[in-house]
Design a protein that fits this description.
Layout: E1 10-12, E2 20-22, H1 28-42, E3 49-54, H2 70-95, E4 101-107, H3 120-139, E5 146-151, H4 158-164, H5 174-182, H6 189-198, E6 209-211
Parallel strand pairs: 1-2, 3-4, 4-5, 5-6
Helix pairs in contact: 1-2, 2-3
EC number: 1.1.1.320
Enzyme class: oxidoreductase
Subcellular location: Cytoplasm
Length: 215
Amino acid sequence: MPFPGARVVDISRGGGTAEHFRADLSAPADWARVADHFTAELAAYAGERVIFIHNAGTVTPIGSAAGADPDAYARAVLLNSAAPQALGAAFLRASAHLTCERHLIMLSSGAAKTAYAGWSSYNAGKAAVEHWVRTVGQEQPADGCRVIAVAPGVVDTAMQSAIRATDETDFPSVSRFHNLKRTGALTTPEAAAAGIWSLVDRDLANGATVDLRDL
């Protein structure tokens, strides 16, 4: 976090910061709760900037769309495709009256452009995020919220561990991710975070979709 003294609110199921708003972002009922939270917190906001980073997503279930558990697949579609749009729109509404800097940063992936068999919901969700960002960025006035999407690279997280544990029959490209781990080519979470935060001060067009590896 490059802003000393900033207030950080973690919106998630488990919580990772001192201030935690518990929500399951694969559950549409919780989207309304998050929207109400945005509205309440930003109604009288007087800070220099407000930033919403949406990085919730899941790569599971991994395997063919036809062979996936229907309930798990539906949750993945809601989390990967629908939640970013619904919560992004809620943040825009809640912050529309503010005159400070406003930033909406959506996490994307190389999977938005490269189709990996076994990742249909994840691939489609990231592609949806990027096109939503391009569209909504065009809708912003000159003094509006800056909306961008960023692919951080292949980051060494628990998600990567789950990917490498997948059988090749469910994910034919699994060997690529084993090679990235073996050769030390994964990005650390700390480096990815620093790159994402740097976007706040970069001169990027509204609606830009960028890859940290290209900056």
